[in-house]
Amino acid sequence: LPMLADKISQKQAYHRDILKDLGEEPTDPNQTMILLLSHFTDSIGKSIDGKYTYTVMRPDPNAKPQKKASSKGVPGQTADDESGLIPETTSAGAELFNVFQKDCTKKLSMIPADKNLKNLKQVIRGTSGVQPALFIPDGVFNTLILKQLDLFDQPSEHAITKSHQCIAEAIDMIAAKAMMRYPKLEREVVNISKDFLSKQARDAKEFIAEYLEVERSYINTNHPDFIERYQVAAALFAEPDEEKERLKQKQNPNHAPLSNTYLQPATRENALDKLMTKYLKGEDASSEERANKEAELMEKLLIHYFCIVRAHLVDMIPKIVMKFFVRRLSTHLNSILIKTLYTEEMIADLVQESDRVTRKRKASSKMMSVLLEAEKLVSDIAVGRSLH
What is the pTM of this model? Predict the structure, then answer.
């Protein structure tokens, strides 16, 4: 009897949990829809804040690929193993953070800052005309930096696309969890939410494209982070610290930061003093040496300005995502859903439980009644034995 009583108690707990998850059959469809829509939109905001999680299936990084025959019957061909998927608890905020790190910061940082900067000496000579420029020609710099800034178009749009996909996945998971009893309502809510999200994605892409166009419309060589003009002049005659240059490039070869005298915090007087000292001593350099220095300096200036714009983008893209996706979803989505779905015809059709849920609730309710009778019967038998 004690073992039988324990089994009955365990089954009661199991079916009680099922009934709790399924909830009671809706008696007021209007109120039910309002509560479901509010819960859904609130859950999106909480998930972005990391307070609402869901489970997704991800490839196991430690799983080894198994070899089995393919559908064409080729033995030994590697095929995906479905058992290589493992559940992972995550949130929309955690997924967005990964997008910001991997698809924004990392991908933008991987763009070589010196890409396309070949044959600069010939480019400078080709635009100089019969009389070479006194210092670095601005026209050449502007033409080349515009081509460099074009490299940001595709990665920036890709970061917006990945953010869109990330939030769309969160909508699927949250809707499935919040409205599992109402499949028709779930489909409508997901479709409306994703349509709204797609519109925000288009707006976000237009905004980032417009921002990049603004960057290209004016090359601000007076930017506070950019090298000053008098330092450019001094750099043409300065002797570089070769050891420091090699060390700097070894530490950060991709960014290739400015490392010669013109990057040091020298004063205007020091820079001009160097120029005057060269002049008074009568020192001069060959035209070839000067051309090499101009090309080297042009490359470093282009890389420096490129890195400034890249830093702006790394900061700007997450803000664009938060404005166009997160803020607009939290501000407008609930009212859009209610305006679209809250009609008598749609409420009657959408707030209907699936047949599976109805059958499951009836089965669990019936089983609970049986278990209660069994519990009473076992209790009566135990009491009768104790009396004898």
Answer: 0.71
